[in-house]
Amino acid sequence: QGVGGGDGREAQRAARTSMLNGVYGVAINAFIYVVFGKQICWWFTSDPAVHAVAVSILPVVAAYQAADGLRVVSAGCLRGVGRLNAALVSDVVGFWILGIPIGYYLALPMGMDALGIWLGFAFGVIAVMTPISWKAWNVGSRPEKLLDATA
Question: What keywords were assigned to this record (predicted)?
C-alpha cells in the first residue's frame, strides 16, 4: 500500500517490519543450531566421524542461515518496490564471484574441507546481505523512486 500510494514512510515501515521479523525467525534457528547441534546431528547419522564434522561446522551454518534469511527478506522488500536488479547483481557477485571461489580455496588448497566450503558460502552471503539489507532498510527514503526499477 505504501508503494502504490507513493507513501515512502509506510513503505519503509513495512520493509523494516519485515526485515526485523525475518531476523527474529532466523535468530531462533541459529540459536537451535548452536545450542542443540550435537543432538540434532545424531538424528541424521550414527557415524562419529560424520557427527564430529557436522557439529564443527554448525556455528558457521547458523551464521550463514541468519545472513541468508535477512538477505532473502531484504531482496523481497526490494522486489516489492520494483528494484529487481539489486538482488540479482549482488547474488551473482556474492555467490559466484566470492562464495564459491573462496569456499573452494579454503576447502581444497587450504585443506579445511567442509568447513572451508561453508566459510566461503558464509562470506559470500554476508557480502550479499550487507548492501541488500542496507538498501531495503532505506526503502521509501526517496518516495519518488518507489516504483523506479532503476533506482
Answer: Membrane, Transmembrane, Transmembrane helix, Transport
